[in-house]
Amino acid sequence: MRRRLLGAFTLPVAGAAMILALGGTGCSRNDHDDDGDRSVTTYEGTLTGTGSTSGTIAVTITDENTATGMLATNDSVSGSFHLVGVGTMNLSGTFTEPTGPLSVSGGGYTFTGGLAGGVLSGTWIGPGTNGTFAALVAANSSSVTAFCGTFDGNDSGAWNVAQSGMTLTGSFTGTAGSGSLSGTLVGSSVGLNFSGGTAQGTLNGTSMSGTWSGSAGSGTWQASTGGCQ
Question: Is there a contact between 112 and 101 (Cβ–Cβ < 8 Å)?
Fold first, then answer.
């Protein structure tokens, strides 16, 4: 079965993927907390970084406006992220409505970013490493699936994708550079775009694989839900 993302703390990742020993609950913007007076939205996705760093992230944004009936500058954020081979760490911080910035930290790591086109994305920095992340809205605890893997060819490194329905987002970090991934899943066909290039592939159960080409050259990529553990 697909790898579930880290859950939001109550996280979440997926949710973190993100976990991503992942198991948790996702909420839509229309859901409320136990008091029924705050709406919450959970985003789950993946991250990549220097030194082939790979993992997942899940954050839950609590809309303080619905609790006070007044315009709140900052919403509270809680969550976690998982680094493959390292472990899972909690995150906390703030999100400024309506599109950011997001600012969360924990375990010596800091994540900053914003919301655009339904994707929460940005950059992160930690002890001796840094990278990028991207996450999608998790309508429930299994609506976002994280695939973590690698790419090689003229460049090589970490290649991670988060999938929800037909929507794909993610990032890659190699020795020559890094970038964000966006695209669609149609049936089992994967189509991805990144700055200066494209990637194609196939979804086969709990794994994806394919080829990439761009200004930096060309090569192959592969990712799986098990790679996020």
Answer: yes
Q: Would the pLDDT of 5 be above 70? A: no
Q: Which domains does the chain have, with CATH numbers?
A: 31-228 (2.40.128.120)
Question: Cα(4)–Cα(229) distance, rounded to whole angstroms?
Answer: 10
Residue 79 neighbours by CB under 8 Å, 6+ apart: 6, 8, 9, 11, 12, 13, 16, 57, 58, 59, 60, 90, 91, 92, 104
Nearest to 228 by CA among 20, 44, 53: 20
Q: Is 215 exposed, middle or buried (0-12, 13-18, 19+ CB in 10 A)?
A: exposed
DSSP 175: S
Give per-residue pLDDT as tens, 43-61: 999 999 999 999 999 999 9
Confidence at residue 96, expressed as pLDDT on a 0 to 100 scale = 96
pLDDT at 32 over 60: no
Amino acid at 139: A
3-class secondary-structure state, position 219: strand
**Mean pLDDT computed over 147-152:** 98
Please state whether beta strands 178-186 and 157-164 pair in parallel, antiparallel, or not at all (unpaired). Answer: unpaired
CA-to-CA distance for 33 and 74, rounded, in angstroms? 17
Which two tokens mark 170?
């993610």
Of the candidates 19, 12, 14, the residue with the CA atom closest to the CA atom of residue 142:
14
Best CA proximity match to 146, nearest among 44, 28, 25: 44
Percentage with pLDDT > 70 across the chain = 80
Reported pTM: 0.83
